[in-house]
Design a protein that fits this description.
Blueprint (H helix, E strand, L loop, with lengths): L3 H27 L10 H15 L6 E2 L2 E2 L6 H13 L3 H26 L2 H13 L1 H6 L6 H21 L2 H18 L3 H16 L8 H13 L1 H12 L14 H8 L2 H5 L12 H9 L4 H13 L8 H15 L12 H13 L5 H25 L4 H18 L5 H27 L4 H11 L6 E3 L6 H7 L4 E3 L8 E5 L1 H9 L3 E10 L7 H4 L9 E9 L1
Parallel strand pairs: 3-4, 3-5
Antiparallel strand pairs: 1-2, 5-7, 6-7
Length: 546
Amino acid sequence: MNIALPASGLRKAQDSVFSGLVLLGVLINFSGLLSPVLETDGTLYATIAKNMAHSGDWINLTLEGRDWLDKPHLPFWLTALSYKLFGYASFAYKLPALLCWVLGGWYTYRLARFRYSVYVAQLALLMYLAVEHLLISNVDVRAEPYLTGFCIASLYHFYRLYREKSLAHAVWGAFFAGMAVMTKGIFILIIIGSGIVIDALVRGDWKGLFHPRWWLAVALTCVFFLPELYCLYVQFDLHPEKVVFGQTGVSGLRFFFWDSQFGRFTNSGPIKGAGDPFFYLHTLLWAFLPWSVLFYYALYERFKNRKKADDWVLTGGVLFSLLLFSASKFQLPHYLNVLYPMMCILTAQVVAAAEHKRWMIAVQYGISGLLFLAGLLGIYLISISFGWVAFLLVGILAVGAIGLFPPVSITNAVRVSLLASLVMNGVYSLLLYPAIVGYQSGNRVADYVNQQGDIPEISVIPGDAANYALEFYAEKPVRYLTFPVADTAYVFLRPEKATALTAEGYDVRVLERFPHYHISELGVSFINKETRHETLDETLLVRLTR
């Protein structure tokens, strides 16, 4: 009895520390709710959802007054519903995505606990909360938080179906798979299912893949994404006269099943890129911070002990997906987001078995120190009025974290790495973005126009990405300008366009000038207040008459 009590008390203390770190991680990730929607993709998606909520048309996706064919409908439906509840605001745009990110954390924990242990599950969740690119995606919100949550949720239930043959898991796995398809496209099913297929092949149980439960899961998945097919058919396939990608006769269904996914992979679709087979190898070094070194070590351990491995679902799924992404001609860092929950579990499992490995502890404390320094550097470069207070606070947090969790175990190393990542990203989310939001000029123009009673509406020229922030935040009608302009128009445009219109005989009177920068693509020269002016463009609000 005397021995059990201290052990029980220690367990409670460890659980309390875990709960506190999880709460802090959620709060820092949710701090993105306080920052503006960032252009280009974020404001573009926010505007499409605003058009949907405002018009009441839940089938046709439109942008700039034209049909828009790129991403599936589900994120726009969820965002439009949020607008109906909370109004047209950054908070309403980001909240559904962040709730899906929470779903991803919950299922990361559940899968790690089911497959390994409570301890591994706790490590995996702490890692999930601190992954650099997930934190970035919760500030610059696009489709990734939705996809991250839906994919790991689907994998969890399909994994349970694979092991237990429960029909309930077939239904839930198919439901979340259908949601993932209606977020990104049919290609995502390969990411969800590849690990299970690889594990079955390694085990020599390929016949099990044709068990009726899997046919049921496939059929249900198709049923769950039928709404997307219906919308695409109604908007595009029923109207071959519509001009999309500069041509008529575009099939929404063909785009969904081939051009948007496999077409990008083979570079045969309307949206093209140039691939680099090593792109994701070096992208992971920063995108999966502070766990990237541990992840590469985890892969090494898995292959070194591959004959003892009793499960290839996670390892196979991650490696196959990385190879697939690397072979693609169209590559972007955020494609990796769907893999991070699996990577966290893989890394946590290896880390849990190396509690006192000194080099691992040293590496994590070294990375943590660099992240704390990055936070301090960010405060210095931002040059805010209370910067010295923030600087002192970050310094105290860094010293306090190491003092509270000394470098004696990998568990402490994970805790300190988590805190370092949260502190650095908290600096950028809570201090940097509020300080620079004014350089996303569409926001400032919207504020200006909203306060001017003599400006009934604002006009923009199609094709400028800066329009989307204005269109989202403006409380007055935003029109897309057509020429020739017969009446007086208040127009948001670039200086070179104003010059061109003047040359065409229009009277262009500048009302306001606004500094502009693409703030979702930060550079050191822009962050540094002393050199920021060198990086700025300019936009204008003009009164245009013939």
